[in-house]
Specification:
The chain is an alpha/beta fold. The protein has a single domain, classed as Acetylglutamate kinase-like (Carbamate kinase, 3-Layer(aba) Sandwich). The protein is 42% helix and 22% strand. It contains nine helices and 14 strands. It has helices at residues 2-18, 35-50, 62-71, 87-111, 148-156, 179-190, 217-225, 233-245, 261-266; strands at residues 22-27, 54-59, 78-79, 82-83, 116-120, 127-131, 141-146, 160-164, 166-169, 174-176, 194-199, 214-216, 250-255, 274-277. It is globular.
Length: 281
């Protein structure tokens, strides 16, 4: 019992500190695939809302999209981690993200006592994008504008926005947007307190393979130069650096396979992932 009391007391100053703040959470990886983790994520998000934090969820769905494309015998390939998207692929992407995954996340949060509303970035022109210019990857977009009033209105009325990363284009096309990128741009537009990226690894690892719990922007750039940070972690830390440069206060890369990962990272002194901020505190 004393350990439970200790944990509650440890969480209290963080709950007080973050009351009224906005957290943008990119939800993806195994946390979206395993049933038990789905329920725990939904419960944690509902709890954040109940203690006065405004969570904004941006979700991916790559594995399910890949499986359906394979079933439909639609070939798919990636360039620098981005799915090459033609019109047929975009139809599948939109069906999976907006029609299946988004609604399941909303239902799970509602079942856990929260009040969630599902959105595509195309709804109300929430997200406006332009075609990625430096790669020949089709209907893949970079976000150029976020209609933050929609998100703020949803939060103000006690609901949790759950956003599928699709966007309208000023050129009349719709665009598939990388979920990490979308979460980062939304966090920047909202000047969020935190951007939290759920992944399938513990966070940023050093050369010894051990987790690095806290990093500054300068330290991240050094690790990038030394190639200590490599592979799939590069776009995630780049997303964090961009968000910090645009005014987001803190960013986190955490392992969504750990039960209650968000709560453990946010409401405990030690955390469980990597926090990247503008400087040492």
């Amino acid at each position: 019992m004393s350990e439970k009391i200790k944990t509650l007391l440890e969480a209290l100053p963080y709950i007080k500190k973050f009351f009224g703040s906005t957290f943008v959470i990119k939800y993806g990886g195994a946390a979206m695939e395993e049933e038990s983790l789905k329920k725990e994520f939904a419960r944690d998000v509902a709890l954040l809302k109940y203690v006065g934090i405004n969570p904004v969820i941006v979700h991916g769905g790559g594995p399910m999209i890949g499986r359906l494309l394979k079933d439909l015998q639609i070939p798919t390939k990636f360039v620098d981690g981005l799915r090459v998207t033609d019109e047929k692929t975009l139809e599948v992407v939109e069906m999976v993200l907006s029609g299946l995954i988004n609604k399941e996340i909303v239902k799970n949060i509602n079942d856990m006592g929260g009040r969630a509303i599902g959105l595509s970035g195309k709804d109300g022109r929430l997200l406006i994008a332009k075609r990625v210019e430096d790669k020949d990857i089709g209907l893949v977009g970079d976000i150029v504008k976020v209609n933050v009033d929609i998100i703020k209105d949803i939060n103000k009325h006690g609901y949790i926005p759950v956003i599928a990363p699709l966007a309208d284009g000023a050129d009349g096309f719709a665009y598939n947007v990388n979920a990490d990128t979308a979460a980062g741009r939304i966090a920047e537009a909202l000047l969020a307190e935190k951007l939290i990226l759920l992944t399938d690894v513990d966070g940023v690892l050093g050369n010894d393979g051990n987790l690095i719990s806290i990093l500054t922007k300068e330290e991240v750039n050094i690790l990038l130069d030394k190639k200590t940070i490599s592979g799939g972690m590069i776009p995630k830390v780049t997303c964090c650096l961009d968000a910090l440069a645009a005014g987001v206060k803190e960013t986190h890369i955490i392992n969504g396979k750990i039960p209650h990962a968000i709560l453990l990272e946010i409401f405990t002194d030690s955390g469980i992932g990597t926090k990247i901020s503008g400087g040492r505190q």
